[in-house]
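User: Um, what's this?
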Amino acid sequence: MLTKKGKYGLKAMVHLAGRPPGEATLVTDIAVANEIPKKFLDTILGELRNAGFVNSKKGKGGGYTLARPAHEIKVGHIVRVLDGPLAPIQCASTTSYRRCDDCLDERRCGVRLIMLEARNAIAEILDRHSLADMRARAELDEPQLMFHI
């Protein structure tokens, strides 16, 4: 399950993706617009900065910007940075694999095989979609009603 940290991080990144390229946005503005506790958002943005997803600038005209264009940032990469591996169990992880202590035959373990399939399905979706895709979905207008007489 996506944690609040992951959810808030994605919301903040979608917010930044909607800003003009290079225009810095204050943490307070992101926090207020997305109903995210500012102190928590400071921590999240720090992690995203350390991972190379955002840039920060202090002082007048400061704030946060995306480090790369939104279409180059995959949703799965953001989730992994903030919440860790996508696999529900470690033996199904590609990045943090660890064999289960109680497993007799990993190749025939029904739990592992289903969790591996779930991990792969989640990764396929999150790694296919970019931050720009998320932003575009958020901007979809309500369907226009047409009246015919």
In short: The chain is about 50% helix and 5% strand. The chain has a mean pLDDT of 91. The helical segments are 4-17, 27-34, 38-50, 75-83, 110-128, 131-138. The first helix runs from residue 4 to 17.
